[in-house]
């Protein structure tokens, strides 16, 4: 739409950033945008399709048509005091909302008058009522109003208009309700509340889950681009779709097909518009140049979703990226969601609605794994591996360039899907990391989420993926923090993805980390024991049954271990029993000659394990197998349903002890996270802290952001303003964090005066950026007890460091002896604020030994941060040293968390070193940076990903 005639006043120019694509309750898409004078005809057409009753509810009187004056009033806005938004589908209005700023008497007002209230009214076409349209509009008009300084909405509703009253009362805003003169009067405070955010996210969850359900369970499918060439992609898609047993109508479409053409007995239609019945899902395998026309035809025919297999989009460069954006814009405007482009496709194995709308030649076995891949090649490999492992899949999506439907959408669906027990993801990029963390944490509380993240070390993003620059720049340590706090199980390889997924799906979660190892090979047991120790588990001494062990020996040993209250999991290790043809070395100098008796099997061991797994499930302990040379044993251990999919209770079998232990260690950590999450819900809290003056701190930040330097920085994206030492110390003091005072020492005389002011003993140290925290360069002199020592130290550093002015020497009182630590909080635009802790010096800088938590941090988070770093023993009396004051350290972490969480303009806080002594601590240096208030997309109204 052309908005070139926008008003000269920027505040009243067309606000394009208010435009948003939204998902409605039924999973359909729509666009919300400001109403403009060009919309007059659309408004009249829209009003003509509204029932008389709905018009009466809106105007409190019969109002059959809009006058010219009405049309002008409802299409001309200043976007400050009078705003109108419309919900648009296929370029037609289906709903509108409008607010008018009013004063205390209810009369029209403007922003300059200081009025902060507005009257709001909605109108939704009857055919679209019940789709959540008004609820979505309320979220967006409320966000617009807050941006324009409006803090409260007033609405008058007839009592019979129960649907509209429910929209207001269910929104979660703080509200007041009264009744007078036959009208319900409602007032809503527009400040987001915990309740309004919860309502918004619950609606988002339902809408996104429903949109995926519509894609996975269509009533009819059209394959567009079905060719007469049996090897062509379109023809293959059509053939495999029909072979999957899809129960609905299937249509073949090819614009070049001569009249009367048939494919495998099916008539071929020239256009989607020629199809004799509605179509829910269209699979597009046409050249990229033909996609726009095909999408337009699909939209006109009422198609609900698209799987675009066609390549040649963002992965090819800027022109392709723009074509991809246009594809998604076109589809969303017509109410359709898009898988792709460059997609491998969709699969659903539900017995009543099997669907293979993918490039896979076979429909996988049905089972409990939901699988998502951002790569077609990896998606194909995942399906192949699942086939060979006899793993059953509930549904599968490989979305290619991920232009619209993403992993977040599939997570929303799998959370509610009773057929999905474990979620497996291959990710290469994040479109919305905050949202992923929120959804994954909710799901992981009941269903394991296992992830492989590509580009771990390079941080690269595939060229076809459109992601915000903030999300593409995520550090791997940040990704680890996201996964850890969300309870996501991160693995490194595709093999580990299924290794871990099978254990989590088939066996109980381990109640702890105490591992029993039982088997018929002492050497294999020792390797397993070593692997457990390396993985942070607590293994018992392996029980060696010897290579002569029988099934009864295994049966007795397994029962004993499983019944032992000091055992949390059992790893069985096995090699072929001695003397059997499969015993290692039996075919060293020759083959078995195809003798069916010479198999790599151990039926007696398999029988013992099968009996033990029932006991393991009964006592809630996992049982798994690590074997060598028993290649046929895993198949014998599988418990299969009639369709051939593996069932819970199957003993996962691994061909190497390291694989088994790796999967077990990840399951142990995931189970611990689940237990901790349950405990945290009842015990963890963000404690109240004394000595905090939020108002004073906020004033300091605003003052820093109003300086000329800050104004210049606003013109640079991502710019941050560093506070000087005094301002930083003052801000921290407002939150009860006291930085040990230091004074400049540019020369000997000034240094001695500073020491006299501060009191001996003192330290003399360099604070220049290249020397800060570098005592290895000789930039610090400690325990200076008098003027002579101080002068001598000053001369030494002046000579060593190239001058006192360049080194920026300062004098500081000596702090009590203790452990040097580092505490920091940094705002990552993609994920929010992250609190970090480590032991200062080599552990943090050289080894990266830092622990992280997302804010706001609870008391439990602070305690875990202190204990999570590998160098934590230094804090707790290592080698006979006195333990330090960890409660004081935990309180400091909570104060930093509170500061950054309260003041979103604070971009980073760095405290280093923080010397933690046996009693108390001392913050010796601090740096604080501020920045203009960042946009928080997760707190705004629901909207689909930006293009």
SSE-based structural type: alpha/beta
Quaternary state reads: single chain
Beta-strand share of residues = 15-25%
Main beta sheet: 8 strands, mixed
Q: Roughly how much helix do the residues carry, as a percent range?
A: 25-40%
Q: How confident overall, as mean pLDDT? A: 89
Structural notes for this entry:
There is one protein chain. The chain is of the alpha/beta class and 947 residues long. Helices cover 35% and strands 21% of the residues. It is built from 29 helices and 39 strands. Helix 8 links the parallel strand 13 and strand 14 (305-308). Helix 15 (494-506) crosses helix 20 (657-683). It is flat.
In short, what is this structure?
The protein is an alpha/beta fold and 947 residues long. The chain is 35% helix and 21% strand.
Descriptive tags:
29 helices; 7-stranded mixed beta sheet; 947 residues; 8-stranded mixed beta sheet; flat; single chain; alpha/beta
What topology emerges from the helices and strands here?
Elements: E1 20-23, E2 29-34, H1 40-48, H2 52-59, H3 68-75, E3 82-89, E4 92-102, E5 117-124, H4 133-147, E6 152-157, H5 162-169, E7 175-180, E8 183-189, H6 194-216, E9 220-224, H7 233-243, E10 249-253, E11 262-263, E12 266-269, E13 281-284, H8 291-301, E14 305-308, H9 318-333, E15 337-339, E16 345-348, E17 355-358, E18 366-373, H10 376-389, E19 393-398, H11 407-416, E20 422-427, H12 433-444, E21 449-453, H13 469-472, H14 476-486, E22 489-491, H15 494-506, E23 514-519, H16 522-534, E24 538-539, E25 543-544, H17 551-563, E26 569-574, H18 603-619, E27 623-627, H19 633-637, E28 653-654, H20 657-683, H21 694-705, H22 708-713, E29 721-722, H23 725-733, E30 743-744, H24 748-758, E31 762-766, E32 780-784, H25 787-800, H26 804-807, E33 809-813, E34 819-828, E35 832-839, H27 842-845, E36 850-854, H28 859-868, H29 886-902, E37 906-916, E38 921-923, E39 926-930
Parallel strand pairs: 5-6, 9-10, 9-13, 10-12, 13-14, 14-15, 18-19, 18-20, 20-21, 21-22, 23-24, 23-25, 23-26, 26-27, 27-28
Antiparallel strand pairs: 1-2, 2-3, 3-4, 4-5, 6-8, 7-8, 11-12, 16-17, 16-19, 29-39, 30-33, 31-32, 31-33, 34-35, 34-37, 35-36, 37-38, 37-39
Helix pairs in contact: 6-11, 8-9, 11-12, 12-14, 15-20, 16-20, 17-18, 21-23, 24-25, 28-29
């Amino acid at each position: 739409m052309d908005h070139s005639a926008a008003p000269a006043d920027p505040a009243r120019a067309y606000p394009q950033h208010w435009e948003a694509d939204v998902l409605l309750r039924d999973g359909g898409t729509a666009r919300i945008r400001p109403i403009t004078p060009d919309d007059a005809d659309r408004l009249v057409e829209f009003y003509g399709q509204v029932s008389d009753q709905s018009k009466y509810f809106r105007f409190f009187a019969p109002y059959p048509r809009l006058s010219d004056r009405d049309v002008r009033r409802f299409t001309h806005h200043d976007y400050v005091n009078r705003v109108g938004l419309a919900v648009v589908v296929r370029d037609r209005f289906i709903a509108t909302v409008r607010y008018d700023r009013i004063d205390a008497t209810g009369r029209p007002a403007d922003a300059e008058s200081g009025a902060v209230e507005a009257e709001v009214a909605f109108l939704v076409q009857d055919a679209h009522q019940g789709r959540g349209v008004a609820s979505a509009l309320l979220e967006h008009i409320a966000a617009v109003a807050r941006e324009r300084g409006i803090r409260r909405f007033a609405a008058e509703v007839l009592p019979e208009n129960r649907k509209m009253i429910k929209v207001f009362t269910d929104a979660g805003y703080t509200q007041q309700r009264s009744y007078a003169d036959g009208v319900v009067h409602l007032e809503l405070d527009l400040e987001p509340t915990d309740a309004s955010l919860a309502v918004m996210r619950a609606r988002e969850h339902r809408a996104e889950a429903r949109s995926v359900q519509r894609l996975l369970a269509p009533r009819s499918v059209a394959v567009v681009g079905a060719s007469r060439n049996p090897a062509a992609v379109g023809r293959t898609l059509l053939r495999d779709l029909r072979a999957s047993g899809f129960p609905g109508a299937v249509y073949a479409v090819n614009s070049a097909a001569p009249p009367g053409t048939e494919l495998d007995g099916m008539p071929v239609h020239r256009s989607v518009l020629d199809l004799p019945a509605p179509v829910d899902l269209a699979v597009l395998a046409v050249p990229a140049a033909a996609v726009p026309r095909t999408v337009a035809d699909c939209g006109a025919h009422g198609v609900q979703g698209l799987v675009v297999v066609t390549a040649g989009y963002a992965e090819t460069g800027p022109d392709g990226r723009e074509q991809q954006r246009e594809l998604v814009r076109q589809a969303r405007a017509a109410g359709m969601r898009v898988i792709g482009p460059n997609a491998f496709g969709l699969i659903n194995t539900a017995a009543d609605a099997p669907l293979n709308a993918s490039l896979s030649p076979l429909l996988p076995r049905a089972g409990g794994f939901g699988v998502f891949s951002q790569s077609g090649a990896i998606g194909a490999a995942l399906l192949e591996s699942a086939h060979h492992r006899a793993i059953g899949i509930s549904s599968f999506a490989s979305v290619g360039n991920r232009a619209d439907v993403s992993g977040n959408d599939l997570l929303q669906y799998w959370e509610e899907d009773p057929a999905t027990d474990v979620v497996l993801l291959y990710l290469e990029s994040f479109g919305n990391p905050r949202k992923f963390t929120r959804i994954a944490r909710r799901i992981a509380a009941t269903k394991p989420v296992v992830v492989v993240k590509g580009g771990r070390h390079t941080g690269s993003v595939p060229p076809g993926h459109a992601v915000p620059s903030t999300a593409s720049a995520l550090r791997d340590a940040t990704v680890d923090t996201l996964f850890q706090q969300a309870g996501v199980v991160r693995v490194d390889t595709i093999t580990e993805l299924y290794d871990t997924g099978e254990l989590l799906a088939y066996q109980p979660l381990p109640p702890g980390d105490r591992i029993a190892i039982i088997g018929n090979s002492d050497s294999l047991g020792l390797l397993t024991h070593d692997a457990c120790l390396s993985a942070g588990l607590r293994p018992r001494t392996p029980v060696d049954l010897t290579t002569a062990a029988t099934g009864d020996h295994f049966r007795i040993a397994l029962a004993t271990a499983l019944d032992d209250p000091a055992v949390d999991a059992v790893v069985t290790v096995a090699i072929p029993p001695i003397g059997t043809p499969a015993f290692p070395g039996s075919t060293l100098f020759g083959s078995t000659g195809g003798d069916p008796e010479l198999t790599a099997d151990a039926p007696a061991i398999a029988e013992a394990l099968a009996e033990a797994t029932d006991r393991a499930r009964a006592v809630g302990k996992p049982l798994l197998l690590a074997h060598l040379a028993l290649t046929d044993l895993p198949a014998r251990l599988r418990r299969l349903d009639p369709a051939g999919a593996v069932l819970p209770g199957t003993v996962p079998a691994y061909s190497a002890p390291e694989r088994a232990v790796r999967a077990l260690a990840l399951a142990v950590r995931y189970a611990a996270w689940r237990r901790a999450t349950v405990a945290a819900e009842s015990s963890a809290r963000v404690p109240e802290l004394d000595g905090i003056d939020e108002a004073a701190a906020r004033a300091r930040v605003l003052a820093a952001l109003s300086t000329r330097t800050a104004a210049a920085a606003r013109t640079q994206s991502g710019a941050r303003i560093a506070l000087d030492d005094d301002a930083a110390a003052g801000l921290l003091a407002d939150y009860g964090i006291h930085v040990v005072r230091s004074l400049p020492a540019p020369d000997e005389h000034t240094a001695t005066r500073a020491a006299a002011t501060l009191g001996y003993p003192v330290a003399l140290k360099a604070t220049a950026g290249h020397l800060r925290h570098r005592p290895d360069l000789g930039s610090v002199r400690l325990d200076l007890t008098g003027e002579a020592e101080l002068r001598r130290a000053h001369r030494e550093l002046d000579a060593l460091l190239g001058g006192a002015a360049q080194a920026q020497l300062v004098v500081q009182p000596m702090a009590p002896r203790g452990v040097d630590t580092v505490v920091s909080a940094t705002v990552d635009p993609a994920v929010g604020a992250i609190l970090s802790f480590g032991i200062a010096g080599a552990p943090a800088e050289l080894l990266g030994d830092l622990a992280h938590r997302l804010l706001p941090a609870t008391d439990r988070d602070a305690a875990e941060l202190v204990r999570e770093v590998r160098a934590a023993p230094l804090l707790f009396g290592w080698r006979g040293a006195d333990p330090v004051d960890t409660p004081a350290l935990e309180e400091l972490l909570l104060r930093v968390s509170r500061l950054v969480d309260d003041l979103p303009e604070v971009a980073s806080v760095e405290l280093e070193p923080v010397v933690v002594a046996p009693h108390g601590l001392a913050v010796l240096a601090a740096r604080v940076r501020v920045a203009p208030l960042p946009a928080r997309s997760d707190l705004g109204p629901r909207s689909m990903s930006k293009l």
